Model the fold of this input.
Amino acid sequence: MYLHNCSYISKMPHIVYSGIGAKESEIHSIEEFLNIMQYASFHYHEMTSLGFEMEYKNYLLPDDFINFTLEEWIDYTGATYYDS
Done:
């Protein structure tokens, strides 16, 4: 069944993301990926409290997460977009 789902997903746009909140398969629809990114502010604070420096371009994070485009989310998280 899993192979069937992978075959099906590979024919539609999807994002491969393995970060915080990712599904075990790491394969997400655009909507699923953006739903995960809704929690980015929480994870930002969690990561900075652990000593990670979280910077991106000239944005003031986490306040500017609201302005991120899909392309910026993909770049910021290291995810990969596949259009088919």
About this structure: Residues 55 and 61 are 7 Å apart (CA to CA). The beta strands are 14-16, 27-28, 80-82. The chain has four helices and three strands.
